[in-house]
Design goal:
This protein is mainly beta. It has 1 helix and 4 strands. Strand 1 and strand 2 form a beta hairpin.
């Protein structure tokens, strides 16, 4: 709820964490030898135009064939 998390990962020099959320810009962060990583996701409104929520699931906007009213 407050955005705090804890994970155990391998200590590979090429380890990368990917942070993503609907409506937010994805960020890839190289871990390296860090033990603490602060990430702030920025808004990405263009992603919201690509998804249409329907009563029984979700579909990509490009896959819709029927009419949609707002």
């Amino acid at each position: 709820m407050n955005g705090r998390y804890s994970i155990n990962i391998s200590t590979s020099p090429t380890a990368t964490l990917v942070f993503s959320f609907i409506g937010m810009a994805t960020q890839e962060i190289a871990v390296g030898n860090r033990t603490s990583i602060d990430v702030t996701l920025g808004a990405d409104a263009t992603q919201l135009n690509e998804v249409v929520v329907v009563s029984y699931g979700t579909q990509a906007k490009a896959d819709l064939t029927g009419s949609i009213a707002r």
